[in-house]
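Dear all,

This email documents one entry for the complex benchmark we are building for the journal club exercise. For each entry we list the sequence lines for every component of the assembly. Then comes the predicted three-dimensional structure of the complex as a token string, followed by one or two observations. Please use this as the template for your own entries, and keep the labels exactly as they appear.
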Amino acid sequence: DTEVTQTPKHLVMGMTNKKSLKCEQHMGHRAMYWYKQKAKKPPELMFVYSYEKLSINESVPSRFSPECPNSSLLNLHLHALQPEDSALYLCASSQHDTAWNEKLFFGSGTQLSVL
Amino acid sequence: QKEVEQDPGPLSVPEGAIVSLNCTYSNSAFQYFMWYRQYSRKGPELLMYTYSSGNKEDGRFTAQVDKSSKYISLFIRDSQPSDSATYLCAMRDSGGSNYKLTFGKGTLLTVNP
């Protein structure tokens, strides 16, 4: 099973709304990631959690707030977003036991539109 | 010079053709190489993962790595309309705590029936 599950698949929100994106994996992976992907561009790394601790924040604005409640779950809390934040938000996970085994598996993403 | 260069295409081929997708890179520290397939509005799907020079085959797909030339390729044999997607190369260095992949810009492939 190499499945990373993301909910919701689609989300439309206003600039004053608060919403959350959810991600779940049951592969026993110990690293989890949030990526942002604009149309016709490659994914851009936002955050990395390693063993449930935030290890990388790629200078992401504070209106994006990640949370890792346990080793299987990853959330991204959204507040006061801007229209330019509209994008496909991807969750990914990797084993993180040996350097050669760091294969990233992505979820299907949440297509976010900010009005 | 960007770290990873990938021809964005688009590439259009007839069904059954052999497809060659390519990436070059400048960072000699890159040791692990991946190819992802991404259908429209879906997440990237890991197709191939290699960490040594040479060829790796999986069904109709062959990944080729030439570290001396800093060049990787993905070959698709007997291409099918279902192969129509964007193909992203990705790579990273060997650092144990380095989680960051460097992606190419992706090549949009269309296989025509």
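Observations: DSSP finds no helices and eleven strands in chain B. The mean pLDDT of chain B is 92.
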